[in-house]
Design goal:
2 domains; 2 helices; alpha+beta
Length: 237
């Protein structure tokens, strides 16, 4: 394969990865707390001879879109949504992870957990316990949980030290290797959950554009393959 073929092949590989990411975004358009994912193309240029060069592109860098998603009312006592920057902290089997999905409920032991059973942590990194006899529970705008005038805890809201360094684990969980700090002015809303920030129409439009670009690249590779075959057949006659 010549330089043109290699350059096109690397581009095709990147486009295929973007197609998979776009498809995953559209599949999670209704997933609570889902953050849209994108991809960045990088270019590698190498000198080819004295007067030429070869340029290859690849899509190795995934990025997470942190734009606010719309808030949907649920009237659920332990449903909370972050209004603005920040993440909730949950304890998983693999360690502490960040999430924007705020659909919580007390488990059989009274710990506040996610639908997957991960415990929700407070600002100090401790689990939040809801007594069975707590009665009517209220969650203030800063995440403070109280019942009948009794303070029960405060839902932790943190901001990652390096937002661009977030690594996605599963649909709505993120690992922050650089760590995080407590949000200075958290704002949460009780009885709401944050919906996905995916724009289905925009994603579909991008999917069509990427598919057309992929088809164009495939047409080039097919034509280049036919050219090489024709050349070989001509030479061996």
């Amino acid at each position: 394969m010549d330089n043109a073929g290699y350059a096109t092949l690397t581009r095709q590989s990147g486009l295929m990865r973007e197609i998979r990411i776009l498809a995953n975004n559209m599949a999670n358009a209704n997933t609570t707390g889902y953050r849209e994912e994108g991809v960045l193309f990088s270019e590698f240029i190498r000198r080819a001879g004295e007067d030429g060069s070869v340029s290859m592109t690849t899509a190795r860098i995934a990025r997470t879109i942190l734009d606010q998603g719309p808030l949907r009312p649920t009237a659920g006592t332990f449903d909370v949504a972050i209004d603005g920057d920040g993440f909730f902290v949950v304890q998983t089997d693999a360690g502490e992870r960040l999430t924007r999905a705020g659909s919580f409920t007390p488990d059989a032991q009274g710990d506040l957990v996610t639908p997957d059973g991960n415990r929700v942590l407070d600002a100090g990194g401790a689990p939040i316990f809801i007594p069975p006899d707590a009665g009517a529970v209220a969650i203030a705008g800063d995440g403070t949980i109280s019942a009948a005038g009794r303070l029960l805890g405060q839902i932790g809201v943190v901001v990652p030290t390096d937002p661009l360094g977030l690594e996605r684990e599963g649909g709505v969980l993120f690992r922050a290797e650089a760590g995080w700090e407590v949000a200075p002015d958290p704002r949460v809303s009780q009885g709401f959950v944050e919906q996905s920030n995916v724009d289905p129409v925009g994603q579909l439009s991008r999917m069509i554009a990427v598919q057309r670009a992929y088809e164009l690249g495939q047409s080039f590779l097919d034509a280049e393959d036919q050219r090489v075959r024709t050349t070989i057949q001509t030479l061996v006659k």
